[in-house]
Amino acid sequence: MKKVTYLIVALLLAACFEDKGNYSYNVINEIVIDTVGFPVAYTAEAGGRLVIDPVIAFSGEAIAGEELAYEWYFYSSSLAVNDWYPVSREKKLDLKMIYAAGAYKATLYVTDTRRNLTSHATFDVNLISKISHGMLLFHVAGGEADFDYVATPSTVRELDSAVHMRDVFYTFNGRKLRGNPLTVRHSAIDGRAVNCIYVSTDQELLRLYARTFLLEHDAGELLVPPLPPRLHFEHIDGQGGSSINVVFFISDGSLRRLSYGAQHYADYSIPTPQSPGAALGPDVRLAPFSVRPTTSGSIVYNPMFYDTVGQRFVYLANVGSSTSTLEPLPAQLPAALFDVNNIGKELLFLERGNRYFGLAVFSGGPGDYWLYEINLPAAGAYSITGATNLAHGKHDMSALPGIDEAVAFDAGTKGDFLLYATRRDIYTCDYQGANPDVAARTAPVTATRVNDDFPAGEEITGIKVYKYDGGIYSQGGGGASDPSYIYYNALNSSLLYVSTWDGTEGHLYEFALSPVDGRLVNKTPLYRFDGFGRVVDMGIKIQYREAF
After folding, report:
1. How far apart are CA 207 and CA 238, in angstroms?
2. Would you report the helix, strand and coil content of the chain in percent, each value rounded to 5?
3. What's the pLDDT score for residue 14?
4. 3-state DSSP call for residue 26?
5. What ranges make up the beta strands (E) of 116-266?
6. What is the CA radius of gyration of the chain?
7. Contact 284, 299 (CB under 8 A)
8. In a 10 Å sphere around its CB, with 0-12 CB exposed, 13-18 middle and 19+ buried, how is residue 215 labelled?
9. pLDDT value at position 58?
């Protein structure tokens, strides 16, 4: 039996051999944390539980349970002793693993409260995590909101089977999200120490640590006063390079811009709404969309938004500056295919597509649908002043099958086509964006159904192409030649996720897209996930420079 003793108070009495006195001796009853045949090293998984139930014995007679006090400490191996804090006061440790992956120690102190004697034992814990690249599924069930995390060997090359972590917010934070889900988005600067997730419902705006999903800040801490009349951040979008990141938040038509560099975790406060410039006038209300070219290095491009009041595009000038304002786009050439300053239609979808061109779907009413191409590269990096011909293509979509019933749109960056979905079907809408002939870039478009039938009773609720800005950069630090960099950049726009709802249960399908042109050619899903609520939004999660 192995004894691990922290503090034993003993009397060492000595007497001369000529001493004739009488002495009595008390044998100390030591507390023994028995580790013979008991594991002293454990492996736990993030989101799971660490359970250690050691055997407590005594060198003498048993000590009554009410006379013993227990304290468990769980800490990183590198953490100083004065930074420890107790995580349990029960004999049996049953601890939820809400920590980042790494090496930890769990130490138990057992105290005989009557004699003030204490013993301790320390156990090694290797905490592993299956949180890496993947998808976040924001769903609602029974009036409660949460999100699931899924990853497959498609998104994480080290995996040999799929990962599905259910109700992640509840698992790591002990409660469900309040309100109805709106959006979930990942944000990072080149993936270094900057890695967070924003979650928004119609009652909450939260920021979570992306490697553990732990709550970092709520709306009261994130938003600079005065707070909006209601929390309704329906659009969150970020762009980041190697040294700067800007996140855009749209709530009830107002835009807030958070810009940060290396001090991201210190500078998390989201400023008050951006003011429209004098040329726009005060009556500006933004649709929940934004579009911009990808970022490169430290460059942050001017994002474009859509004003639903003036039914026109606007942009954010001086995007990286605290003095940024919403401004009108430059006057366009008379021969432009359409006027970005006077669209006159309802915006249904806005996203970056192939060749970094913007794709916008508009409706002028039932039976009147249009696809507009916006030449975003012409907008320039820091200044949009010279962008006088942003209109690149204008296509009538009104005759497309199911377009009146479309529930979702998306686009990748590998081909000149738009994806749209009805309740049961997915279509590719082809356009001739690369054709120099203006007639081709204004011709009506056609669409082709690309899916096999989903199971009876399931209706599509969303589609999402797996794409991100600028790749994963150098996962292993080897730059563009690093195998991880090559793998994950090739993955960009090569997966399609489709969420469905059967009336009682949500489902998710992962499809492979062609690595050449991003089209859905294999109609058999790679993976299917079940058992969550109705999916309202899907967010792409990138781990960046983090080993799985």
Report:
1. 14
2. 5, 40, 50
3. 37
4. coil
5. 117-128, 134-141, 144-151, 163-165, 181-188, 195-201, 205-209, 215-217, 233-240, 245-251, 254-260
6. 30
7. no
8. middle
9. 87
Distance CA(319)–CA(317), nearest Å, equals 5
Q: Given this model, what pLDDT does residue 250 score?
A: 97
The answer to whether 105 touches 120, Cβ cutoff 8 Å, is: no
Residue 128 has a CB neighbour count (10 Å cut-off) of 14
Task: For 486-523, write each residue's pLDDT tens digit.
Answer: 677 778 899 999 999 999 999 999 999 999 999 998 99
DSSP readout, 48-60? SEEEE--EEEESS
> Rounded to an integer, what distance in angstroms lies between the CA atom of residue 57 and that of residue 59?
7
Of 147, 125, 139, 142, the C-alpha closest to 197 is 147
CA 393 vs CA 170, 367, 368, 540: distances in Å:
46, 20, 17, 29
Residue range 205-222: average pLDDT?
93
Q: Which amino acid type is present at position 425?
A: D
Residue position matching structure tokens 């995590």: 129
**What pTM value is reported for the model?**
0.86
| Residue 262, pLDDT above cutoff 50 | no
Q: Return the half-sphere exposure (C-beta side, CA atoms, 13 A cut-off) of residue 360.
A: 31
DSSP one-letter code for 33 = E
Rounded Cα gap, residues 512 and 524, in angstroms: 9
Give the SS3 label for residue 516.
coil
The token pair at 48 is 């799971």
Which residues sit opposite 205 in a β-bridge?
A: 200
Burial of 303 (0-12, 13-18, 19+ CB in 10 A): buried
